[in-house]
Amino acid sequence: MVFSSLEFIFLFLPAFLLLYFLVPARFKNAALFLGSMVFYSLGTLDEPIYILLILAAVGVNYSLAIFMNRWPGAKKLFLVIGLIYDFGWLFLFKYLDFFLSGVNGILGIFGSGKIEPVGLILPIGISFYTFQIVSYLIDVYRGKFPAERSIIDLGAYLTMYPQLIAGPIVTYAEVKERMKSRTLSLRALISGLQVFIFGLGLKVLLANQVAGLWTALSTIGYESVSTPLAWMGLIAFTFQIYFDFFGYSLMAVGLGRMLGFQFPMNFRHPYLSLSMTEFWRRWHITLGSWFREYVYIPLGGSRRGRGRTVLNLLIVWLLTGLWHGAHLNFLIWGFVIFVFIAIEKVGLKDRLDDHRALGHIYMIILIPLTWAIFQITDLSQLGLFFTRLFPFLPGEVGVIYERDFIRYGGEYGILLLACLLFCTKLPYKLFSKGHDTIWGGIFLLAVFWASVYCMYMGMNDPFLYFRF
Amino acid sequence: MNRNTRKRNQNMSWLFALVFMISFVVAMPFMVKAVLDQNSVKAPVEDDGGQQDVPETQDPSVPEQDPAQEPETTDPGDNTEPDAENPDNTGSDTPDEGTGAGTDADTGDGGSAPDNSDDNGQVTWTTVDTSYFDDALFIGDSRTVGLSEYGDLSNADFFATTGMSVYEVYDETVSVPSVGKVTLEQLLGSMTYGKVYIMLGINELGYYFDQTVEKYGQLVDYVREMQPNAVIYIQANLHVTKSRSDTDDIFNNKNIDKFNSAISEFANGSDIFYIDVNELFDDASGNLNQEYTSDNAHVLGKYYVVWCQWIREHVAA
Questions:
Q1: Is B294's Cβ below 8 Å from some Cβ in A?
Q2: CA A302 to CA A430: how far, in whole Å?
Q3: Residues B156 and B234 in one domain
Q4: Is residue B95 less than 8 Å (CB to CB) from chain A?
Q5: What is the rounded CA–CA span in Å between residue A208 and residue A460?
Q6: ipTM above 0.85, yes or no
Q7: Same domain assignment for residues B29 and B176
Q8: What is the pTM assigned to this prediction?
Q9: Are residues A358 and A221 in the same domain?
């Protein structure tokens, strides 16, 4: 169940809020845990076993953390067991087939038989909750805070439905105090609702709508797309992925605030960045922090000389690529980002920061191109798409409808401009200033009901999204 | 002043919450209902202004089809075989196919059977060159839009939009290059067509079946009346892929076939014909071949030329 659905907004959320606000303070975490499990179950009806998996993750890590405190001498052992357990499941579900295809590739060289892919379905949210629980375990290991005594509190933290499926990746340190005591207020409820609506609008009214353009490109087939349309489609995808993810994160922040939590912001106007380095400090911030905190710095960060720094960066970026998906293109994507960040570290970044216009131009070209590598998992299709972006590259060209970019420009032009506007700081400044004014209220109500209308039409009328 | 502003803003946020709650509560029953009957079949669409456009033909000739005529739908024209193979190859050879047809204004088999259909109701197909489509009109949905954009029958007129259905076809305005922005009535009223191709029905699969078939029949009658001299080609709706068909309660090939078979009954073998392009794009199990599509419902841009060639080869002799 996603936040941008009528089920969530009109059934789950009201029922949950009613329960959550009615139960006494000491049961609120239990209510949150229970509600989150219901939420998760609704999303995994086909594979109910996954509920046990997430509950086991709570139980195992809870116990290991307690053991670490009780037998500090053996805490390293418990940490290793925990890491193997947590990453073991993630590997099994997410990477096993990718690994096997690599093994098959090597076996193929020696001409031996093939191993069949296992084809397991990825449990929802496993990439996120694994990272959260690992951060908890490592923090206890490091003595940042003692092990949580209440399994309910830990379970409520790990499975908390606002951030269970798509982040932000919240560390236990960030919410620990609020797990124990938090004040609920009607004001926070309203303010959380406002943030939620804003995020909902980004997701439903921008991301979902602009998504059609990228879909159109693959429907046509990249070989039959004109160069202007290829760029237009890629820019549309650049907007789509941002507003989809940012909108979702914002909804999570809003929901968190309604429940008395303060989640970290996951995005800070990333498309205004002047360099790749800066971009990744502003895009999916909680993931970047996780890798810095639990991979990059433990590896020595940038304090062990230039060679080691480059190696550490490479490791972090290949892992970041893999985290996004088990395909070769994600490794390439991570590697490309690594290359640019390494070049920027040597001195390019200073230049770009000094010449802001140059920095913007550099990023406006670079960001969509990296998203192309991210999005097109089939490498031959990816190559084909690049030959359309840069028509001087040799490649297959199919039948092209020369007026295609005019047609789609007419259909999507205004939407693309709206997306562009929402990449700047202006709408957010206006929102934080004016959300409690009459115009702010009217705007939010309009956004909410327009979003509900779209969701209603999309669900009730399958033809809105599946139109032939 | 600062405090006043804050106070006022606070009041505004209460007001916002109040309005939000009231509208939320009012909408809730409808939304919950929408969630609960998500997968039920849609009620018929009310006829609107377009109704008077549809002539109420009492002529029963259409429904009373001789079942013997149905075999016409499954003409295994031998010249389609090579085409069906064609998309398998990289597709780079498809343009040759198009020019090839243009040069040989063959009618090789056309000459053999000048009459429309033989005694068994079997239709004989012939091949024509592109000029045949100078006075052709294509009515359809997104598949026909694809045909207009990526096919090579640009001399024909196209009255097609994404999402077009037999319910909306009278109300939509479409920009037809040589004519301008027109409704179907205006278009059929101002132009004279020798051939009218129709491919509609997939968007309507969620509606009541019988009503959609009836509506389709009315559309055929309407075109017949407005363009008395045109040959009408009822085109079977293109299949979807197996993966889509297996997971979709509405847009699956069982429903598509059922509908196609129903509309094939409107063909009469003399001036209304039924042609089924699925033979070109199906895989062995009768689903749209996965290799020809990326969205499981539309063929890739490069295959519309192949499709156009197939249309050229399926002209009733």
A1: yes
A2: 39
A3: yes
A4: yes
A5: 16
A6: no
A7: no
A8: 0.81
A9: yes
